Amino acid sequence: MRKLKSWFGAGRAKPAAPDLPVDLLSDAFVADPAPTWAWLRDNAPLAPVKSGGYVMTRAADIKAAFTDARLGNAPSRFSMLAEKNRDRYVAADVAANIPPFLDKPRHVDMRKPLSAAFFDTFDGAEAWIGPLAEAHLARLAGQGPQDIITGFGRPFATQAMARFVGLDHDPAAIARATGALFKLFAPITDRAGFDDVNAGLEATRHYIAGAVAARHATPGPDLISHLIARGGLTDIEIGDHALLVLADGIENIEAAIAQVLIRLASDPDHLAALRAGEGDIAATVMEVLRLETPAQTIPRVVREAHERDGVQLTEGTPIFLALGSANRDPDLHPDPDRFDPTRDHSGVLMFGQGRHRCIGAPLGQMLVTQGARALVDRPFTLVTDPARITYHKRLGHRWPVDVLARID
Ligand code: HEM
């Protein structure tokens, strides 16, 4: 019944079976993960992954996993990032400070002040984010075909996040810092690569420490100042939180803004309705985030051995929760491949759910929505053929590479 609903109900061709273990970095998967997700949901909802571990694809299973105490976020005790290694490796020390790598009780201790300081900072952000988006887009007007990611989404998100966090607007230093943090989330494959991760994080901590010292001396309406004011965290913990927030607010945003542009360009009636003030830009953004979920998979680690879907899971096994699949699961979203901004978005999972749910979701939505609003307010033409858009080979993320557009 489930198969009939998802294959024929949505009017799609029957998806071809991927090779198992599934390669989440294969060219076909990176180009379009949706057919693989559809096949896995119907045939192997907990499937082995080529790089190790398993991927979970059904929305109901993923929602249950968010509250399953047998799955956690802390690196396995066999990992270089395990807490016991924090005195040996900067990478393990950073991981031991930031929520995505923590289980309770430390997760609660670190997330609570970060979440409180986030909302202190978020109040009033809309007043400057909208004009900032418009100013960045205006720079591209009349310039001929420009990459909307490096020309608009990235500089806009970088400047917005620098201001939000409380850093000087230095795009090159910020790119180095976010690059260093993202390496912490990639699988560690060799010693030289791991040395590189540690060196990058060491330099980044030094850079962020300068901003923390500056905010001690001159507080502002920014995240670092609010973290200092709330107290209870060391300066290193404040710096690591600031780095996490900075990094989380750039690539996902630039990717989502590019996806909104691609969608609006391919749906002139919807764009015309938005321009006429008849549609809801925020709902359009939510629907684009559902269909083109930037964080396709999020990692968990088996904390306690157990059996699941006929698979015996041992402690330390990575489990990838496929949010991109859950967001197209017909059991959760009827006719899931159809773009429909009016659908109920209350159950969508692009920001996760439960104790690790994205702290920055309201800011993420606001940044993308203000980027989208700027696009709606200006005539633009998509230059890149949508069928030729390529995606970064980044485990867990769906981020387009170049999206050329002309802004008038
Ligand atoms: C469209 C943009 C964004 C998307 C798609 C996104 C998505 C996500 C996802 C899927 C998670 C993991 C949830 C889990 O593991 O259960 C997450 C965690 C997180 N996000 Fe975002 N995010 C976005 C923007 C932001 C922004 C702007 C911030 C800045 C404040 C932010 C801060 C965080 C933090 C701090 C966490 C870790 C929460 C924890 O582990 O307790 N995100 N995000």
UniProtKB/TrEMBL annotation:
GO MF annotation, one: heme binding
Top-level taxonomic group: Bacteria
Name the record gives this protein: Putative cytochrome P450
Keyword Iron-sulfur tagged: no
The keyword Iron is annotated on this UniProt entry: yes
Keywords, alphabetical: Heme, Iron, Metal-binding, Monooxygenase, Oxidoreductase
Pfam family of the protein (one): p450
Homology family: Belongs to the cytochrome P450 family.
Originating organism: Maritimibacter alkaliphilus HTCC2654
InterPro entries on file: Cyt_P450 (IPR001128), Cyt_P450_B (IPR002397), Cyt_P450_CS (IPR017972), Cyt_P450_sf (IPR036396)
